[in-house]
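Hey, weird one. I pasted the Peptidase sequence into the form twice and got a warning about non-standard characters only the second time. First submission, copied straight from the form history:
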Amino acid sequence: MRHSAGSGPGKDRDGGDGRFGRIARSPLGWMLAGMVGVGLVSGLTATGPGPVPVLGAVAAVAVYCYVMRRVARRSAPEIARSGAAREVLLGGGIGLGFILVSALLITAFGGYSFTWAGDGFMSVVWTAVVVQIGAAVTEELLFRGLALQALEQLWGSRAALVITSLFFGVAHLGAPGASALSGLAIALEAGVLLGAAFLWRRNIWFVVGLHFVWNTTEQLLGIPVSGHAPEGLFTVDVHGSALLTGGSFGLEASIVPVLMGVAIAVPMLVRAHRNGGIKARRHTPR
């Protein structure tokens, strides 16, 4: 049998990339490739000194763009620079309100009391901002950019939202003070809320803004962020039931933000449905 020039064991007759290329371009293929790349960048930079986490976030975005364009062979409008600042600010406003109202309600019910720490204002703020930029960008690229969109192509938006929310909760089970209840709380208030935010806006920067301000506000208030006790501008004394306060895991394990998170996510999902952002399961020919 004659072979055309350039053909070989790694090529299809039509000039494609063969079986490996088809696997890589499948939703699970590019999801796994992206997770390995972004996860590796995050692991190497998340706890680095100075601006290293921010540089890691930049590198993670570059890896994500490369995987989407070269491996998945799709455009990535969700990461476009146009309008990014507006989306970050809008998402950040929601994240700020979410945490401040949650903390205020818990304080009003006697769960928290705050005192000014008074040490190193600028260094505390700088550390919080740098660390949380890295965390917000890499986590949103992994869970909403890669996992949610890949699973959505296979099984639709609803299944993708449920699966990524559950995995987001499971991913936080290794944090200090974590439990099955804190994992469920993270899945509901964070996994569902952040997933709904992405389905509504279809923009990574919107979700990054929400996530970043959420975590940064918690850290500056001195409240543990997913079990990690930060150096904040305040120190917080915790009183009463862990159901109200979240216990040693922090505010995210409290019933208050769980209820608030679901309440915010529902209208986002309604708007996503009206805008055509909720996609049905893809039917493959038999």
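That's the output from the first submission. The warning seems to come from a hidden character in my clipboard, not from the data itself. Confidence is low (pLDDT under 50) at residues 1-16.
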